[in-house]
Structure formats: structure tokens, C-alpha cells
Amino acid sequence: MSKKRKDVMKKSALLSRTMPYIKRHKGLVLLTFILTILTGVLSASTPFITKEILDSYLPDKDFVMVRYALILYGSIVILIFIVRYCFQYINNLTGMKIEREIREDAMKKVNYLPVDYFSLEPDGKIVAKITSDSNGIRVFYVKMFEILNAILNIAIVYAGIIILKPVLGLIILGIVPILLLWITVYRKWVHKYFVNTRELRSRITGKLNENITGAPIIQDFNQEDKIQKEYDDLSWEFVKNDRKAQQTNNAFGFELLQFIKRLAQIALLMYLGFQSLEIGSAVLTIGLISALVENLDKMINPFSTIFDSLNELEDSMVGATRCYMFIDEENDTRIFDGSVAPSINGAVEFKDVSFEYVEGTPVLKHFNLSVEPGKTVGVVGATGAGKSTLMNLLLVYNDYQGGEVLVDGHPITEYNKASFRKNMGIVLQTPALFAGTIKSNVTMERDYPDEVVEDALIKVGAGDLLKKNKLGINAPVSFRGENLSLGEKQLICFARIILRNPKILVLDEATANIDTETEMKIQNAMHVIAENRTTFIIAHRLSTIKNADYIAVLDHGELVGLGNHKSLYDDCKVYKDMYDSQFMNFKN
User: pTM for this one?
Assistant: First the structure.
């Protein structure tokens, strides 16, 4: 963990990190601060009214002034209620605005993270960082202001005690270090539990996402009991950690504060009692005693607010840290930096390219391959040979460590990724569809006429998909396209390529999971979309790339064969073994 990530755990660093968002709402923040001061002043004024009623108006039987004083007291109480309501409303409103803006920034961050980030971080944890952890920043802001409000109230009320009885004010000041020490020790003690609780909550969210997404597979393999046990273990670990936090809270929390408060009241009453014996009751009046007791109560009660806020503050700090760590992740390099890629012709050259995910474990070793514009290249090899990695480098999902990848003779590292990828198209083994309509999934929300979308679907062989739906291209598509067959999903992805019209196309195992009949349709669609494009077809089924212009054979990150099907079958043992193996499986 970097120093920056360590510092963000501190309140000062979190406040500094949140400050740019706070400044956007400085009007609301200033109003909240004014209401905080007004609440303290109004709250500190009521004991003085009580003192005057008990010491002046009632002994003099001035019931008119008693009535006016009671009306004033009631008005102040109502006003305190209104001011506190406004404070809470505006404080929470500001916090919600900050949370919304941070969620927007976190969502934008998703679009700028390196592609491999999503292969390393579970989807559920990413969702938790954007949703529940961003809520921690709102709570952090709200609770910080509530604590500030409590501290100002303590200071103002304490000033009232000094005015009423300066000596007693100095005596009461002695309990403040005790309370501060208690809060500090408690906060440090309970912090570790909140850190664990947040992490466990995130892991539970990730596990839930994994279980729900994989529910059909879990049921097919009868793994319900195993998965349930894993989830139960996580839940029980969460419960044990949360229970420890609650036990700490019960032992050193509110009840301990009430005990300290009672001790302070006993000390006050004993002091006043001894004073009355020494100097007589003329100085220590009923009104003064009542005002001092009321002020003491109002001074210590905000510590209860601070204590309650500290629990939520500690939890929110962990969530805020996780959210900020997500937002502060390093962006994908060259998203918009670098020169804008021109309209390319499609010549591709891998020149002595080396790459490794883990240092010391090479995936590609001094790889060389040159492809002319408009040619179709089949890329084959055993699992782990480096096929998908090769395409990831071409699509700039990863940056190579050695050599160069050239497009039209220029290193792709010179271009910003946004403009370069406009010239690229990709169809994955698992089609990526979104809830919406057939049209929205083909156009990806770009503006195309209906007839253009329909024509693209017909070209790739998806005419039957339009005929069977009365709504045609406006037929609904459910989450992940679950209401469509795998072949239909793939054809929709092919239609996207027609509209995008890239110069370089990558088909990554596009026929891997479909039946033989559908494979024929997909192969026809592949032939259509590959026309006049430099096309790389990653395939396990060698029948898919039998008629490619070139077939590149990879083995342990090295190019061990390049040519057409016949030449490779005769001269490349790796290719021959792969082909014979598939042919024998087919015969069997």
C-alpha cells in the first residue's frame, strides 16, 4: 500500500480529500455552520431565564414577568427545535449531494480503469465500493459536522457556566481531559472492528454476486451445500466481528459516559453543599443551582452525541477510504494522451514482442508476425499458448514489455487509446449484451436509422431473429440477453461490427460455445464482417479458420508455424497434432 493510501485513513486526509466536493456547496456549508452557532447560543440562554424566574420573579411575586419569561422560554425551545431541524435537513442534504457527486466520479472511473483491473477485482467488490462505500463519505461529512456542532455547543454552554460561577467552571473543566481520553482510547480500540466489518461486508457482497451469477452452474454440479457453507462461514465471521464491536460499545460506550456524567453531578452538588455551609444560602440561590445543573447537563449531553457519531464516523472512514482508493486508482495509460490515430489501413506487425503478466513468467517470447491489410489470420494453439494475450496487446488492453506492435508502420504506443480503438472491433467468446432492445444493443446507443440497423442484422444472418419478434429491432433484450440464444447474441454482436466498420477485427473464440448448425450461420457471418478488414480469428475449432489467408500457430508464447492449412499440416507438428486430435474426436 502506498503512502497516499495509508494517509487517507486519517480524518485529516479524508477531510482534505473531501474538501473539493464540500467547496462546491459552500453556501449550504456556511448556512449549516451558522445554524450550529445559533443552536449553541439559544441552548445556553435557557438556564439564565430559569435562574431569573426562580431567583427574581417568583420571590417578588411578579407573575407578569414570570408569564413573559415562560413565553420567552417556550419560544426559544420552539426556535431551538426549528433550528436543529434545519441544521439536520441542510447537513444531510449537503451530504447527499456530495455522495451523488462522488458516485458519479466513481462511475466515471470505471470507464478509465485498465481492462485487467476487472479481471483481478471481483465484480461484487467493485459494486460495493461505488454504492455502500460511497455512502460512507456522506456519513463522514454529516457526522463530522454533527461532532463540530456538539463541540461548539459544549464551548458555548461552558462559557455560560463561567458567567454563572467562574470557580465552578474551572472545576468542571477537569472532567474534559477525562472525556477526551475516553473518546480517544475508545475510538482506537473499536476502529479495527469497523475495518474488518467493512471488508467482510464487501466480501459477502462479492460472494453473493458470484453465487447469483453462477446459480445455474452451482445447481448443475450439486454444489449448493458447499456454496452455502462458504457463505455461512463468511456471515458468521461477520457476526463475530460485529459482536465484538457491540461488546466494546456496551462496555466503554454510552453507559460509561452516563456514569461520568453522574459523577460530575454528584461533585457539583457536593461542592454547592459545602459552599452553602461555609458562606450561607444567600449567595447560592435555587435559581443559580438550577442553572448550573442544567448547564452541566447540556455540556455533557453533547459528549453523548460525539460518542454516537464516533461509531458511525469510524465505520464511514473505512468506507470512504475504500471509495477514494477506488477513485484514486491509476487510470489506464494513454486513454486520451498521445496523438490521435488517423484512419488506418490495417497493416499489423508484431515485432520482437515480449510480454509477461507476472515478472519472470513470460507469456510471449520475442514474437514476430506481419499481416497485410485486409487479410484474415487464424491464431491457434493450446490453452495458455498466448493467443488472447496477443490480441490484448493489439487492442491495447495491456502494454508489452519488449519489442513493438506496429499498425501501418507506426507504434501503437504513440496513439491515444480512445482514437485508436475506434479503428478496432472485437467479438468475444461470451457475448456482451445489455438490458434494452435489439436496436440499442446493435447501435450501442448511437444514432442510426432503423433500416440501417435492420440491414446490418440481415447481412450477418439474423433475419430470423427479426421475423420471430413482432417488434422487430425494438424487441426487448433482458439483462445479459438471457431471453436470447447464444447464437442470437453472437449475431447481434456481429451486427455491431457492421455499423462500427473497423479496419481491424478480432474474433476471440466466437464459435466456441455453439452447436454445429449455429456454427455454420456464425461462420457465414464471420465471412461477411471480415470482408475488407484485417481480421484475427482466435479459434480452438480449426474448421473455423481452415480457409484463412494465414494461420499462425503459437506454442508457449512462440510462433512455431505460419502458413495455410495444407502447408502447416505437412510441416508443423503442433498444428498437425491439433487437427488430427479434433478430427479423431469428430469421428468418435
Answer: 0.69
